Amino acid sequence: MAELVYRNDRYGHTVWELTLSGQGNEAPGEVELRIIPPPSAPILYTREDFAEFRRQFDQRPSRFPDNSLAAFSAWQAQYRQKLSAWLMGGARPAAVAPETRWEPLPGPSNFHLERLRYTSRPGRTVEALLALPREARAKPSPIILALHGHEATWGQAVREAFQPGHINDFCHYFASNGFAVLATPTMEHRLQNKNWTLYGEWVWDALAGLNAVTERPEIDMSRLGVVGLSTGAQLAELVAALDCRPRGIVVAGIFTTRNHLSKRFRIPPHCDCGSSKYLMPHIEQSDIVALAAPVFCQVQHGQQDHCLYPGADPAKLKLDWNTGVMPPEEFAAAVDEVKRAYKLLGATDRFSVHIHPGGHAVDNAAALAWIAKCSKT
What we know:
alpha/beta, 9-stranded mixed β-sheet, two-stranded antiparallel sheet, 11 strands, 377 residues, Rossmann fold
């Protein structure tokens, strides 16, 4: 008997645990491990490739109906429950009392910075960071939930993100422009809850963090935006899909297709911490955004992000990481699906794609303009 179990260690390495058992003198068998080398040149995309992608994309089980608003609303209700089940051990748990503790921290001159410790589940304490405007305000401040991905320190809400020049300095940017900013930890790769997923834990910790800051009178929770980069951007999609509080989200550097992730991403070195195993078999990213609709959603991509920007220069790919670029027509198909959902809801002005000249980063000015727009609506 042989049992092969897949898991990730805390560093994002793909690990296979093999257990062999037999009776008497039975041979335990052999295991062969092969390293697949990167290609010598980027893999080209053909018309036949797109036709096969399109066939599978149109026939996916999670495709939402387009015949009526009632059918679409029923699909949203059904798939929100499924999403919770896939991520959180079978069903969305009940919220617990956050049991908050606050600690002031040294910070910039234009906003306060505090450390927040709160309970997200029984026995689990989470440490987050909260920035608040220093000047007295006649009205409470709008708030941003800030979510980072693998590009920042794993398992922490990093104080450096509240300084200019950090890859996640959208925290500093929004805090400097009058927003409260809650940065919750993500990317802790040690699973805490049996039968959950890492994505489920990160999303639940973020939702519990929002519950924890509702007690602060300086914050207007009715003007909540979510900004995420990379894996944090996919978490932003999931937060908006599972919670009705966000008014708007910015999805930076991640919006793509299952086909691109499965065929052109090399894992490792890319981390397969949850998306491929727990979400990709079930649902497209475009469907997750459709679950969040009609929330205001801006998708951002940087032209120098050669892993994910549609139509990037293949010559600039790192072939040990990606074997090909994201085809523009494949990206357009995913965008069109999201537009289809927003059209059904009569909210076509609430979805936008923003291309900027940078790399794998948030365009802070564009994100601020987008969130400010939806905060006023």
